Request: fold
Amino acid sequence: MGGQFPQLYPFVMMLAVGTGFALSRHYKSTLPIDRFGKIWIGMAAFTGAFLAAKIPFLIPGLPGFGGSEGILTSGKTILFGMVGGYAGVEWAKHSIGVTAKTGDTFVVPVAVSIAIGRLACFCGGCCYGTHTKLPWAVIFPAIDDLGRHPTQLYESAFHLSAAFIAAWMIRRRLFRGQLIKLYFVSYFGYRFLTEFIRPEAQVVGGLTAYQWSALLLVAVFVWLWRMDAARLRGEVNDEEQ
Reply:
């Protein structure tokens, strides 16, 4: 049964952070950035992710997310956390004049961290799905005695799969410089679809606040992808001339 081991939640979350940190050191070892730059960018990524993940739950009356609570006790959303981490990295790079592409080095660490983090959600009994009679339905005793979609496990599997695929793409130098955007857009699409089996409140047009956010973020990151691609094509043309 899900939610049977809430005492494990902080330990699994610490494992998620520690694993992400170890993988991050490995993938960033080849970046042409000095030690201070790597630490500065890593701190900005963590801070941006933490703050952005909390923001929707700290705005009183924001439809579909939550109310005003303390920053350490309120909920958090991976959807906004991922974007906050991305923004933190871009700000940190700009602040110290780093122009090297760093996004690809974040994909595997972030994906594995979230995969483990969702296991913590399963242990704690949060982020569960809607009722279902499927064979793998899970009962969350703190909620009710009906089987529910173990959406935490679905998402854990998604991010773990994304990590393996990303590692394979990195070795084969596929989507270089754009892999982080591919990962984000894939997750936003995944989150949009799985919201249909999560008990979130519908706000407009039969969609939840998370679904509208996912649609907006897909548009933003597709635009960023196209802007980056156009810039890279311009640099290649300049070199050829």
Summary: Confidence is low (pLDDT under 50) at residues 67-74. The chain has seven helices and four strands. The helical segments are 9-28, 35-58, 78-96, 103-124, 151-171, 179-194, 209-240. The CA atoms of residues 39 and 66 lie 33 Å apart.
